[in-house]
Amino acid sequence: MNETYILIAAHEPAHADVLHIAAATGHEVVETTDPLEIRRHYRRAFAVLIDAECAECVADQPRRPRVFVVAPDPGPPDYQRALALHAEAACTVPSMSYDIVEALSATPARPSATGEVIGMLGACGGAGSSTLACALALSSSSPSLLVDAVPFSGGLDLLLGAEEQEGKRWADVHVEGHVPAAELRAALPHVADTAILTCDRGGVAPAPSVEDIVAIIECHRSDSSGALTVVDLPAWGDTARQLVGALDRVYLVVPAEVRAVAAGTAISRAVRTELGVVVRYRQWSGLSAHEVENLVKLPVVAEIPHVRGLAKTVETRGMRTVPRQLKAVAERLEGFRRG
Fold this sequence. Notes:
This protein is of the alpha/beta class. It folds into 2 domains: about 5-105, Response regulator (Rossmann fold), CATH 3.40.50.2300; about 115-339, Rossmann fold (3-Layer(aba) Sandwich). It contains 14 helices and 13 strands. The strands form 2 sheets. It has an 8-stranded mixed sheet, with helices on both faces. Strands 2-1-3-4-5 form a 5-stranded parallel sheet, sandwiched between helices. Helix 12 (about 290-295) links the parallel strand 12 (about 275-280) and strand 13. Helix 1 packs parallel to helix 5 and helix 6 (about 130-140) crosses helix 14 (about 325-339). The two termini are about 25 Å apart.
């Protein structure tokens, strides 16, 4: 974790005591009991002080350090919830307040990171989320890392025509302790200023775990230069559900077609994270962006027109440069990032 604030997600009567604990550490505080906000800050905060009720909304999140499940005296605290979150401790407050302060004071916080992590999620197979992920990473105005989180995807290096580039793939990468983001990027294959972390087609290594992917995300997020991480997410399911909590923003790519919109609508109801919709038009698309927005019940933030010849380009030589139409979409999303 790279942010220096403490997330407090607790109801009264524990809330006041937890607030005093955070104040004693000298850290800034973010207070919320809103599930969306809790999930947004859960991965980023230096530490989390959370009650059992609020902890329900992060039960599917990857393990992280410095989580304390709190309950008001006389207790008992919810040990089951603490075990499920792999919490550092389950504590009653105020009787155990000193123990929490001591534990938090023993670990200095790193300076706040400036890197951002964006995920691309397809509403259905062939939606174009992988292509848009590549376009956003290649078009970034800052150093970027493209993370292939799709098991047995065939490799984003193939999509970019970089399969012959030397560098480590998922089977070769092990993040332990603090690894500088620039060092991570240098070890990976590149297209221009974009580093690519994807699978190795020549081996039998298992797909990366959620913990592996999150470790890479956190490593690159720590880059003080404002580096961008773009994650190509797998189809909606347990892995994607866990990963979205580690991201700053997620875009759902929805083809303007009836079945794709139906799938996107189902995903929008299941995702407990704010989403922006990117509508993709194909030659046979029959819906408008307005119709997609009304059906999915999420804001459309960008539209991808049909890019003539792109499929053949990807098949024959890879997308080494971003087509004008895709670049315009990527720049629009980059503008949201800067804003």
